[in-house]
Structures are given as structure tokens and as C-alpha cells.
Amino acid sequence: MSAAWADITTFAVYIYGFLLGLVNIAVWLRYIRRCFTSLRPLRKLKYLFRFLIVVLAVIMCLGPFFAPFIGLKITQRVSGYAIYCANTLINPQTKWDRGCDSGFPVEVILDGRSYYDSVKENPLVASFYFGTQPGRRTQYYTYGMTQDDNDTTIWHLRLSNVNIPPDLDPVYHPMAQDLSYRFANHSVSATCTTNTSVPCMEGSFSDGGNALSLAIKDLGTGIVTKLRALDKGVWAPVPADDAPSVILREVQPDDSLGSIDVLRTAVTMQGDCTRLKICLSGERRIDLLAAVGLILRAQGNYAYLCTSPNSI
User: Each residue of 129-161: b (16+ CB within 10 Å) or e?
Assistant: First the structure.
């Protein structure tokens, strides 16, 4: 519903700009006709005044036709910056509690390893919380992420610590049992909780210096979902001198980005740089889970750096 409403409002902006342009053209044509026939000042001032009138008329007549194309882009950038500025004025604990608004029914807290933590005893952890009220959500399960024992280019995200009431709606149940990320060829696959013996998902990703992107195929339905970052943001820099920051949207059939954020990073916890909160737009989406694993690994790199003795 929200996506449809966003498309309607965007279409309305273009229609409004078109109609306003037509009105401006009609008004200015009438005004210029009257002005040019009745104006009798000095000759030089007359031509100067007429030139300025024509320039102003062209701007006001053509501006509404092109303004939506420019204005929507600027609005997207400015709104994100305004939210960031507003968040800096909020109490740190409130920022953490309300990092995901009611438009995101799932929030995930990522726990990286500190410089002093044992790698074997402390996997990277993603804890999933559900609910509509920020700060009052319930944790139902977690995933732990570890590096493969035999191949350092492979990472595994495995389901753990499930705490789901037996009568809970299936929408809150985890979908995947195990995800494997192969960074040598940038591929990912998963087994689902319904059948752990065969893969239920496969896909590819890009997480280097470019903006984060994924293409995930549900092997049960054959549906491919593509996700791409709104912009480069702060993603997996080397060294990891900041927490990962990314907004993901679905890629449309014409390769453009949709208007709805399906995943966005929120804030790190005040006083604990190893923890990062991210927000998800859907409860049971394996494509978003695949993205969570990549962000968790990036947060693990940052957590190690920000807690090291040489960090500032």
C-alpha cells in the first residue's frame, strides 16, 4: 500500500507541474501582450524592461515542467540529511530505542567482535526483533556468523537461539537455516528451515568499493529479487574507519530503483561501537536476510577497529 501511495504522489507532482506550467504560460502571454502595447518609458529602459519580462516569463513557464525531475532528486537527498541532523539532537538512548520507526516492522541488532574477543568463542551475531512500536519489540531468534574452518573466503550465517512461542504467526518464524557467502566469486546460497538438505536460495552480491547490491533467486518459486543501495554511503571501506551505512531499495524491471527503502542502517549504540541497528521492511524475506549477513560482516570489521588500542 505504501509503495502504491508513493507512486501516486510522485505522479501527482508531475501532473501539478504540468498544469502549473500551462497556467503560467496563459497568464504571461496575456500580461506580455498588454505590457508591450501600453509601455511608454524611455527607449533603452523600455527594451531592458521587456527583456527582463521575457526572461522571467520563460523561467516561470518552463520551470514547472522540469522542476519535478530536479526537485524529487533534491528532496530525497535533503530529507535524508535533515533526518540525520534531527537525530543528532536526540538523546543517544532515545536514538537507539527509536532507531527504526513503525514503518519497519523488523529491527536487527548486529553485534561485532571487539579487538579483545576470541574469534572462536565470539561469532558475529544478528538478533531479530519484531513489533510495530519502536523500543518495545520482541526478540525471537538470532543468527551467528563465522568464517569457514577450511576456506577463509567463505562465511556462514547460521540460525541459533530460537525463542518463538508455539502459537506465533508463521510470518515471524525464520526462513533460512544456513546461508553461505563465497567471497571468492561473490555468490551466496541458503538452506531453509523446512528442508535443510537442499538449497532453497542462490544469488550473487557486490560488496567491494562499489555500492552494495544483491540478486537473490528463490529456488522454490523461481522469483529473482534485486536490491541495490540508494548511493554508495559508507560501505566496507578499507580500513573500516566507520560503521557501515546503507539504504537498500528494490531494482525495478527497467533497472531503476524503487521509491521504498526495504533496508536501512540506523545507529550504533552510544558507548558501544560494536553494536549497530538496522531496519527491515518485511518480516520473512530471504533477500533481506542475505543483505543482513553482508552488513554484519562489515560491522564486524568496524567493531574490531573501533575497539583496538590504536583507535581514536
Answer: bbbeebeebeebbbbbbebeeeeeeebbbbbee
Mean pLDDT of 94-104: 72
Torsion, Cα 92 98 101 105, to 10 degrees, reads: 130
pLDDT band with cut points at 50, 70 and 90 for residue 276: very high
Residue 285 has pLDDT above 70, yes or no: yes
User: CB-side exposure of 198: number of CA atoms within 13 Å?
Assistant: 4
In sequence order, the β-bridge partners of residue 308 are none
Nearest to 110, CA basis, from 307, 308, 241, 266 = 266
Neighbours of 254 (CB within 10 A): 5
Helices 43-88 and 2-38, interaxial angle, to 10°?
160
Ranges of H-type helices in the chain: 2-38, 43-88, 92-97, 286-306
In contact, 148 and 127? CB cutoff 8 Å = no
**Distance from C-alpha of 181 to C-alpha of 71, rounded to nearest angstrom:** 39
